[in-house]
Amino acid sequence: MTSNDSIETPLLRVPFESLRRTTRERKYVIDEVQSVVSTLHEASTRPCSRDEGEKTLDGVLQRLEGLKRKLHETTKVEEVEARRCKARLEHLVSIGLPEKDEATKWNDKRMDRILADYMLRRGYHRSATQLARERQIEDLVDVHIFAEAHAILEGLARQDCSAALQWCAQHRTRLRKIRSKLEFTLRIQEFVELVRQERMLEAIAYSRQHLSPWSDLYQADLQRALAALAFRAGTACKPYAALFEEGAWKELAELFRKDLYRLHSMPLDSQLSIHLQAGLSALKTPQSYSSTSNKEDPLSTEKFQKLAEQLPWSKHVHSKLICAITRDLMNEHNPPMVLPNGAVYSQKAVQMMAAKNHGIFTCPKTGVSCDVNDLRRAYIS
């Protein structure tokens, strides 16, 4: 698998995983239909009164109506996700790999969806939706996933856990499979808020109903939270003071985001961050941080240096020189030429500029002029 395949994998994986989950749900519904048919068959072999028979049929009809609605909803989801899979496959096939000297144009075709993904993750839902609609890339961007998440994050920003808890209830089975701690953490936060407001009896009743079922999994965390009943808000005891910090709501929002991404098989970092890290890692060398670095190097700027702090150094097995005038590669066919002042330019650039100035070459950086015959060829090791 190429590096480009690895970067583009989430684009296909998100709708594919959703389609696979929906297919499993369809199987469960069909199995339940078969169970209803078996129940009806068994009932038909037993003697019963007219009223009992009608009651049994009514129950069967109600179950079948419910299953019919589930199948209808599942079919609609399958159609949407299949359409997204098809659109994304066609998108990747259409852009293919960049042709020579066409990388910028090739990247333009991908940049819109990468920017839309970044805006959705940063909370700019309207802007991302508008961009996707104007560029006709709705099927290439996971707007529907972030639309649901947007309302939950707004609720957490208002210190309201109700929407997040409802989301946990809807996805409880899948959250358990990924060993999510989100629902327990939300319950702890609601308990802490009751303690903060000194509604102790309500807090105790809440802990019995909503926290005690988690005792086997998170006993230490549960004991620490219950001890808050004694310490209360404003305590200076660090283990318990941390429960009442306002930053806990931001941590909850971040935990929800991480579980949302894991649940939908999405990478934790945005596509924009992944591409930036890949590019900066390829460029990062000790020379980039020196005072004599090329100002056209992105890593010569402070902001890019900060982004690349945790990235590894680039490994260059062979030296590669680029002419500052023509931007051409300097090699055996276009060798580097060294001026008396130590500056280096390609032979092509030297000849081109010297031809316009009667055999005299002037360094564009230092202004030093010299005869072309005074330049010497350098050899790349």
UniProtKB/TrEMBL annotation:
PROSITE patterns: CTLH (PS50897), LISH (PS50896), ZF_RING_GID (PS51867). Residues 297-366 form the RING-Gid-type domain. Residues 145-202 form the CTLH domain. Coiled coil: none annotated. It is found in: Cytoplasm. Keywords: Cytoplasm, Metal-binding, Zinc, Zinc-finger. Its main location: cytoplasm. A zinc finger (RING-Gid-type) spans 297-366. InterPro entries: CRA_dom, CTLH/CRA, CTLH_C, Fyv10_fam, LisH, ZF_RING_GID, Znf_RING/FYVE/PHD. This is G5666 protein.
